[in-house]
Amino acid sequence: MITLWELGGRDDRRYSLFSWRTRMALRHKRLDFHSIPVRMSDKAVIAFSGGKTVPIVKDGEGDGNDFVVRDSWKIAEYLESRYPDAPTLFGGAIGQGVTQALNVWVDRVLVLPMLALIVADVHERVDPADEHYFRESMEKVLKMTLEETRTRRAEAMSKLNRTLEPMQALLKRQPWIAGAQPAYADYILFSIFQWARVMSPHEVLEEGPLRDWRERVLDLHGGFARS
Amino acid sequence: MITLWELGGRDDRRYSLFSWRTRMALRHKRLDFHSIPVRMSDKAVIAFSGGKTVPIVKDGEGDGNDFVVRDSWKIAEYLESRYPDAPTLFGGAIGQGVTQALNVWVDRVLVLPMLALIVADVHERVDPADEHYFRESMEKVLKMTLEETRTRRAEAMSKLNRTLEPMQALLKRQPWIAGAQPAYADYILFSIFQWARVMSPHEVLEEGPLRDWRERVLDLHGGFARS
Q1: Cβ–Cβ of A185/B97 closer than 8 Å?
Q2: Residue A160: CB partners within 8 Å, gap ≥ 6?
Q3: Which residues of B touch A101 (CB under 8 A)?
Q4: Which residue ranges form the domains of chain A, and what is each CATH number?
């Protein structure tokens, strides 16, 4: 039995981009899991993990031999080595190495522009108990108020789409980020669009191959990420 | 027998970044090759390939059954499928797909900032017959004169290094771009630094993991890229 601790928002939303990487990896591996929503401001309920961030995965029967893994990248590595006979996330050592390069690029280059674009919408949909904590920490990161971010949407949208241009070009050459078939690399990039999709009423992508690809990812695993 | 057509500069320099991807891929596959320098302004000598750009690889005995492949990415794909028993460039389909993502990112995001930084130095070292052609085409691409690029070196250097930040972060986590061992992903990124190394007397990288990694790539295959 696998348990996934992850951020929970209003109306039972699951909105952490990092937990979406884990969710898609679990479905890719054909593993069922039980989700436990966690408030961003409540670190006590996840203290058992030894850390302060979700996602956290616990895998086991509760018999004292459970594996507890924290951090979406480490969880993906864990799933790949623990379930080698299920469909592969990385396709071997080189695939894993280059996928980590993509992971670092997405985290360092794409997350912040996307945050700047959707942060005010996200704020309206986090757990009410997290609203204050969320505003305070995000305004610090972005160095502006949530209200200011609303007036700069067009600028943020154009910056985000400029940064995504290499991925548009890539998807003219191959149907998935990982090539002919989807793999963990796809879920990494998808996670930032799913974050926006779950938490914002606005379309964040200009028309193009990337938008078509996002729809294909939404169709994967029985339309898992659509629901 | 493999023949490689590639740009040749002064003093027998081989300076095309794309041909360095091919050179490293050939050495990785433990294949010997014969290099034919081509002038940038001379399209006639490569017309046999059906295109106007190098690198071009011809593989065969000249018996009418030769393979002619153009474009560094296509050459890498060709070598991987033609020589499956030699060390792998991609490590399988997913590795190949994600490596193509890196390839597109390097070409679309890194080549231009590097060009802006070294273009005047490159101009001094191309084949004298190419000087005029090179200046004209590069000034068009960069929308400024070669002389202007010299006055903007600091700005170009800072822009390049900012764009490289995710790769610095990656190389704190793993020794090679492709993970635990070098592969084609490493040669793609290396090619832009080798271009600078062959054509410019200036160091283009700030101190950090990326500079250390570049030295490790230079040591590969018996120090092949150092000489």
Answers
A1: yes
A2: A110, A113, A114, A116, A117, A204
A3: 98, 102, 166-167, 170, 177, 185
A4: 2-82 (3.40.30.10), 93-226 (1.20.1050.10)
